[in-house]
Amino acid sequence: MAIDQKTLDELKSMLLKEKEDLEKNLGRIAKPINKEEGDYETSFEELGDDKDDNATEVDQYSQNLSVENSLEKQLQNVLDALEKIDKGTYGKCENCDKDIPLERLQVNPSARVCLDC
Ligand SMILES: [Zn+2]
Predict the structure, then answer these.
(1) What is the pLDDT of residue 1?
(2) CA 97 to ligand 1 centroid distance, Å
(3) Which of 47, 48, 83, 107 is a good FRET partner for 115, with 20 to 30 A between their CA atoms?
(4) Measured in angstroms, how far is the CA atom of residue 76 from the centroid of ligand 1?
(5) Which domain holds residue 52?
């Protein structure tokens, strides 16, 4: 791998920071099912029993659900990247197996594929 240890450490701390932020944001709208794997379930908030309350609950829930899905996807990318760092396979394109350029990783440390793919 072309990435030196110091750079790798920097990328890793960026990923850990990102993981923390994502978990914090997810925690507001979802419950962790499996934190290790970044698996969350959107919480359904009970506001009340009348018709308006129920409509608001459903609106809120579907909004949270789409936010939750996108945060969860990001979190899983971050967790995968961290796992790859541990395994020593970090920085390779998942599609063509070429090295992902460092400049790209520094902007987006959880990138899975190179720019061409
Ligand atoms: Zn590629």
Answers:
(1) 52
(2) 6
(3) 83
(4) 20
(5) 5-107
What digits encode the pLDDT tens for the residues 32-88?
Answer: 999 889 999 999 989 999 999 999 999 999 999 999 999 999 999 999 999 999 999
Q: Is residue 76 part of a domain?
A: yes
Neighbours of ion ligand 1 (CB under 5 A): 93, 95-96, 114, 117
Return the CATH number at 43: 1.20.120.910
Domains: count for the chain: 1
Do residues 80 and 112 make contact, with C-beta atoms less than 8 angstroms apart?
Answer: yes
Query: Exposed, middle or buried, 51 (CB in 10 Å: 0-12/13-18/19+)?
Result: exposed
Would you give the distance in Å from CA 41 to the centre of its chain?
Answer: 14
- Tell me the whole-structure pTM to 2 decimals: 0.88
Query: 42 CA to middle of ligand 1, Å?
Result: 33
Q: According to the model, what pLDDT value does residue 3 have?
A: 87
Residue 8 in tokens: 């790798």
Chain segment 13-39, per-residue pLDDT in tens: 999 999 999 999 999 999 999 988 999
In the reported structure, the alpha carbon of residue 103 is separated from the centroid of ligand 1 by a whole-number distance in angstroms of 15
